[in-house]
Write a structure and sequence with these properties.
The protein is of the alpha/beta class. The chain contains 11 helices and 8 strands. The protein has one domain: Alpha/Beta hydrolase fold, catalytic domain (Rossmann fold), CATH 3.40.50.1820.
Length: 298
Amino acid sequence: MSVIQKTYTFKTVDGCAIRADVYHAAGAEHAPVLLWLHGGALILGSRAMLPEAHMQRYVQAGFVVVAVDYRLAPETKLPDIMSDIQSAYAWLCSGADRLPVDPERIVILGHSAGGYLSLLSGHWLMPRPQALVSFYGYGDVAGEWYSQPDVFYCQLPRVPASEAYGVIGSAVLTESPVVPRERFYLYCRQNGLWPKAVVGYDPQLEPEALEPYCPVRQVKPGYPPVLLIHGEADADVPVQQSIAMAAACQHQGVAHVLRVLPGLGHGFDLDAPGPQNPLVARLFDEVLAFMRQHVGLT
């Protein structure tokens, strides 16, 4: 399939352009949108993390794929990061520079921190997206798993504070490779500092300030249908995070599907063999069916 790709700037902050890569089939018209959000703990990464094989499958399924950047932490805190997602969504809803999209049919999909932003979008965005997909995302940024030293990461050699803070700066940043900023992430996990460093609030002193940023406590009637996908052996984001989101949806009568994959860890769909794994391939069939159902594609 011939795919057309173009890059747009949907927002500029302090002279920093925040961009989106748009992919669609030749001849696409009034098509549903897949707004794709990258992972990286909100600290690193970019829209370029969208795997080619994933993009091709989404476009073949009838979607215009829009992979967006957002400002990165800790230079930018979560409230402003979420405002970038709101800006990208508003840009799409307004017609997005005359793209061949239907602004009333938008699905939001993300991986890890992108999955978290997808879940948060179900509460923060208006009008509501038609559906959400979270690959190993999380619903609680105030819980002990993020606000206390992590057992798994504490087994690794300790990252000194001087090294951690030496790889970040003060300027607004929207794109970053994994190295060296992953050292700051590791430092945060080893010391239970991610909520303070990224969200900007202390869970011990300001728990109420974190409430709007915890999707698991913001699920209410009217929250979009959601597909939650998680590897049971995830050592980075506990599978319980998706299980708790499913329970919150069940309690509120929100349509949801939970898929826990035995033996798989964090990023199972991105690492080799990834989509070549028959289990992952079947999962992507289900993801596509879920998204198509909720945007009216038959």
